[in-house]
């Protein structure tokens, strides 16, 4: 009986293919087709890049047959998504692409450094990466569709735990709960005035006859929409931040706004059209240079907040709710959550942000750090204080202590089986061929069903 498909591994492979390492090539020069699923291809470079992704992150790569199978699985999901008319909204793809480009700019220091590192123009990189991001979103949507009805009960978790021999229970790393209060560095009036004037100059150029979309491609720092001429697509009311939406809804079609400031920067907005409760706009976004922002203001503010908490004049959770500028954690009393499980308990190991790990290593449970500068995922300069709320030391897996982790494992296993069943039922709906070089991998029984053309590419 064929082994069950590793659901988590399939997800991981799809992430690797859209991670910033994509496109660097890692020395790969051969781009031979090694597998085909209907009209979707797996190239040798795809396999090598997936392999190198593990190496670059100091992880032991799986066997290449396992990597190839996972790549074929992703292509099969894309093929089936096309058959089943599963699509993703373009603005979701644009948003994800924007985040990835911002992350890359942060890692490389500047867009110029990205171009030099990849040996390709930004436009070419965005185009290539956009295709990969869109494919990943479709694969994720297919996975969600397949596993949407998968549920587990506490009884199933207990059965799983009781089925593990007591001398084989895994050793769990330390679990911690951490809160944060964040304050962002603010641009000076001079910096904002300079950005405002640049946008007014761009507005004048449009008024003098230049194309808004062309200027958006050239100047906008919203990477996701810039490549589409600043086009944000149709948005329902309430989807955009209030300053942007308020300004956009006051415009007539083709009319431009004054300069609008939001938490993302400064915008020049042009309304394209409205359609019922939706509106279609594009914009040019300019952001301050986050590397040059003064951190003294947020540091002083957090110093004062910390003093109040330490003196027990206010509880940390209340202070986070009232004063933290990180909206994703403020409403939860500043409590951080594991991005994979959603649990407030996070493993204190190599998966944790390094700066946070090293800081917690010097703190006692119940203590609050001094203000610490850090860079947010979208590249903003900020300062935060950390609250070391609780810690469970490393231990042998325990049903009560580790219920959430055990629950995640059981749910993942059940999803594995659901996806495995789906593959078995769906494999006959697509035509899979594998290059003779990889016949020994025995992917879905395609060893005897290989197209001769694959061997000559």
Automatic annotation (TrEMBL):
Keywords assigned by UniProt, alphabetized: Isomerase, Rotamase, Signal
Top-level taxon in the UniProt lineage: Bacteria
Any one GO MF annotation of this record: peptidyl-prolyl cis-trans isomerase activity
Record domain PpiC: where: 173-273, 276-387
Keyword presence, Signal: yes
Keyword Membrane annotated: no
UniProt xrefs under PROSITE patterns: PPIC_PPIASE_1 (PS01096), PPIC_PPIASE_2 (PS50198)
Position of the signal peptide: 1-23
Protein name: Peptidylprolyl isomerase
Organism, as annotated: Spirosoma terrae
Organismal lineage: Bacteria, Pseudomonadati, Bacteroidota, Cytophagia, Cytophagales
């Amino acid at each position: 009986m064929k082994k069950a498909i590793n659901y988590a591994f399939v997800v991981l492979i799809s992430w690797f293919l859209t991670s910033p390492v994509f496109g660097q090539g890692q020395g790969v020069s051969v781009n031979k087709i090694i597998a085909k699923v209907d009209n979707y291809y797996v190239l040798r470079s795809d396999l090598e890049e997936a392999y190198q992704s593990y190496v670059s992150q100091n992880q032991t790569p799986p066997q290449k047959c396992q990597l190839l199978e996972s790549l074929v699985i992703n292509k099969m999901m894309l093929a089936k998504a096309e058959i089943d008319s599963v699509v993703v909204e373009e603005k979701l793809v644009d948003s994800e692409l924007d985040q990835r480009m911002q992350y890359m700019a942060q890692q490389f220091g500047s867009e110029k450094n990205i171009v030099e590192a990849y040996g390709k123009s930004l436009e070419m990189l965005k185009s290539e990466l956009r295709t990969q991001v869109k494919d990943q979103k479709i694969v994720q949507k297919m996975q969600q569709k397949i596993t949407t009805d998968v549920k587990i009960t506490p009884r199933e978790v207990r059965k799983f735990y009781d089925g593990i021999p007591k001398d084989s229970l895994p050793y769990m790393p330390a679990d911690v709960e951490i809160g944060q209060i964040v304050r962002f560095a603010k641009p000076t009036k001079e910096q904002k005035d300079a950005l405002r004037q640049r946008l007014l100059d761009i507005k004048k150029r449009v008024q003098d006859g230049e194309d808004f979309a062309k200027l958006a491609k050239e100047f906008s720092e919203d990477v996701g929409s810039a490549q589409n001429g600043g086009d944000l697509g149709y948005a329902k009311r309430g989807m955009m931040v209030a300053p942007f939406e308020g300004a956009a809804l006051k415009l007539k079609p083709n009319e431009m706004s004054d300069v609008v400031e939001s938490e993302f920067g400064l915008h020049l907005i042009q309304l394209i059209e409205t359609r019922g409760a939706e509106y279609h706009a594009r914009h040019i976004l300019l952001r301050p240079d986050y590397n040059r922002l003064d951190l003294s203001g947020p540091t002083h503010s957090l110093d004062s907040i910390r003093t109040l908490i330490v003196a027990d004049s206010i509880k940390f959770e209340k202070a986070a709710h009232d004063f933290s500028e990180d909206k994703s954690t403020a409403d939860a009393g500043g409590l951080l959550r594991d991005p994979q499980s959603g649990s407030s308990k996070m493993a204190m190991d190599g998966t944790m942000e390094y700066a946070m790990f090293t800081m917690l290593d010097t703190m006692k449970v119940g203590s609050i750090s001094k203000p610490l500068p850090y860079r947010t995922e979208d590249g903003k300069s900020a300062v935060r204080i950390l609250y070391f709320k609780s810690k469970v030391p490393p231990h042998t897996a325990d049903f009560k202590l580790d219920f959430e982790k055990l629950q995640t494992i059981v749910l993942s296993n059940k999803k594995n089986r659901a996806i495995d069943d789906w593959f078995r039922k769906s494999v006959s709906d697509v035509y899979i061929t594998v290059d003779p070089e990889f016949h020994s991998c025995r992917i879905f029984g395609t060893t005897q069903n290989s197209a001769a053309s694959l061997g000559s590419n």
